[in-house]
């Protein structure tokens, strides 16, 4: 059985007060559905010295605070209650600054054959890659449409993702609103933030005929300002969402998945399908595609280009907000981090470049491919290095096919 899965509001048995430079390592000990209380958990450095020690509470929850580094987190077997067996009592972890580290111990009868076949492991990683790719697509579609309609490469889009998750956290934790209504309210706020970006910054710059390079520099400066304002008013620590609960996997074998990951896949597919229908069937969607194809021709045919761009920005803000919440729930264990969107920005750029800059369908296809490559690559490389795959995809596609999979070549001059 799994123990140590992430949850919110978990309290350990009288941990020491954390120092500013320490990181939370935590978990919940469960034997099946029953919590395992009174078990000593030690965090040891590479030399075998105990750095921090704690005892699991009545709920099975425990936590320690340690400086960044490599540790062996160990259950002291002499403290395990009689009748409870542990399959894995030591977990090697790498603790990085600002990223709380959950630890999973396995309870139950020891298995004689725990090796997972390569096919089963690759199937799991493929499903996880699909989930991750769809979340990147949710965030990246708006970025691609902004580029298609305005020509702007918006480096502040990652901060829209972070801001959406932070606003959801504020509604959920500070105001006590349940997670789903809090997410809906945050999406509405995301629409407002997207419109404010367009009306307050980008439309005035376009009317002054600012060049795309100048606007790119403005977007970089805006990203830095937003990132560090979030750091000042939010926290430098990952903060949990209140309604995130311990997740027990459903299914079995290669197709085992937690409910939150399954719902992330379903929600992403539904939202992206609605975006596709909107682009194909509605007047505003056809107008968006016309502006993306030829802005001057669209304006001469009677399309209100400014109104279309404003709609694109509002939709991009909404999708970025939703993507931030899904990313926090499925990839960060129900926690919000102040630079989560910045970490995702490279993968968004890699995905929309692979699919074709400025095309919504290209962004969808490219982001899913990037998500699959990133997750499946962990079968061969260290998971901490998996985002490097996004950079490699970006370099390769710009070298071989700069227009992307669904993009078309453009003749200049």
Task: Explain the overall architecture.
The structure is a single chain. α2 (157-174) packs across α9, α9 crosses α10 (360-376) and α10 crosses α11. This protein folds into two domains: 2-107, Immunoglobulins (Immunoglobulin-like, Sandwich); 119-400, ABC transporter involved in vitamin B12 uptake, BtuC (Orthogonal Bundle). It is α+β, with helices and mostly antiparallel strands and 413 residues long. The chain has eleven helices and 14 strands. The model is unreliable at 1-14 (pLDDT under 50). β3 and β4 (34-35) form a beta hairpin. The protein is elongated, with a radius of gyration of 23 Å. The protein has helices at 118-150, 157-174, 179-207, 212-233, 259-281, 283-293, 295-300, 305-330, 340-355, 360-376, 388-400; strands at residues 2-3, 23-28, 30-31, 34-35, 40-44, 50-55, 61-66, 69-75, 86-88, 90-95, 101-102, 105-107, 239-240, 335-336. The longest helix has 33 residues, at 118-150. Strands 6-5-8-10 form a four-stranded antiparallel β-sheet, with no helix packed on it.
What's this model, at a glance?
The protein is of the alpha+beta class. The chain has helices at 118-150, 157-174, 179-207, 212-233, 259-281, 283-293, 295-300, 305-330, 340-355, 360-376, 388-400; strands spanning 2-3, 23-28, 30-31, 34-35, 40-44, 50-55, 61-66, 69-75, 86-88, 90-95, 101-102, 105-107, 239-240, 335-336. Helix 2 packs across helix 8 (305-330), helix 3 runs antiparallel to helix 8 and helix 5 (259-281) packs across helix 6.
């Amino acid at each position: 059985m799994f123990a140590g899965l992430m949850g919110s509001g978990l309290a350990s048995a009288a941990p020491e007060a954390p120092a500013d430079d320490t990181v939370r390592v935590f978990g919940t000990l469960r034997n099946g559905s029953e919590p395992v209380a009174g078990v000593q958990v030690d965090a040891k450095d590479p030399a075998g010295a105990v750095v921090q020690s704690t005892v699991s509470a009545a709920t099975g929850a425990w936590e320690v605070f340690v400086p960044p580094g490599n540790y062996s987190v160990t259950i002291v077997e002499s403290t395990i209650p009689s009748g409870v067996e542990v399959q894995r009592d030591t977990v090697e972890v790498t603790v990085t600054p600002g990223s709380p580290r959950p630890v999973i111990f396995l309870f139950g009868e020891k298995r004689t054959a725990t090796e997972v076949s390569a096919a089963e492991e690759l199937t799991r990683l493929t499903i996880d890659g699909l989930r991750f790719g769809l979340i990147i697509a949710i965030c990246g579609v708006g970025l691609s449409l902004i580029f298609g309609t305005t020509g702007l490469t918006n480096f502040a889009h990652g901060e829209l993702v972070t801001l959406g998750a932070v606003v959801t956290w504020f509604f959920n934790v500070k105001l006590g609103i349940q997670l789903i209504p809090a997410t809906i309210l945050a999406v509405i706020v995301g629409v407002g933030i997207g419109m404010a970006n367009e009306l307050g910054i980008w439309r005035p710059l376009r009317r002054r005929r600012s060049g795309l390079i100048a606007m790119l520099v403005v977007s970089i400066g805006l990203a830095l300002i937003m990132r560090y304002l979030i750091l000042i008013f939010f926290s430098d620590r990952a903060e949990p969402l209140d309604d995130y609960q311990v997740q027990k996997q459903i299914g079995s074998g290669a197709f085992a998945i937690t409910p939150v990951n399954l719902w992330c896949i379903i929600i992403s597919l539904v939202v992206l399908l609605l975006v596709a229908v909107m682009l194909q069937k509605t007047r505003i969607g056809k107008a968006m595609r016309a502006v993306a194809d030829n802005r001057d021709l669209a304006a001469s045919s009677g399309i209100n280009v400014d109104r279309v761009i404003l709609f694109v920005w509002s939709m991009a803000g909404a999708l970025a907000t939703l993507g931030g919440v899904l990313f926090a729930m499925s990839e960060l264990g129900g926690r919000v981090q102040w630079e989560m969107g910045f970490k995702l920005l490279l993968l968004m750029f890699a995905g929309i470049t692979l699919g074709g800059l400025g095309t919504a369908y290209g962004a969808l296809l490219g982001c899913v491919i990037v998500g699959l490559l990133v997750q499946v690559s962990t079968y061969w490389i260290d998971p901490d290095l998996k985002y490097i795959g996004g950079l490699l995809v970006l370099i390769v596609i710009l070298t071989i096919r700069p227009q992307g999979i669904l993009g078309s070549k453009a003749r200049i001059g």
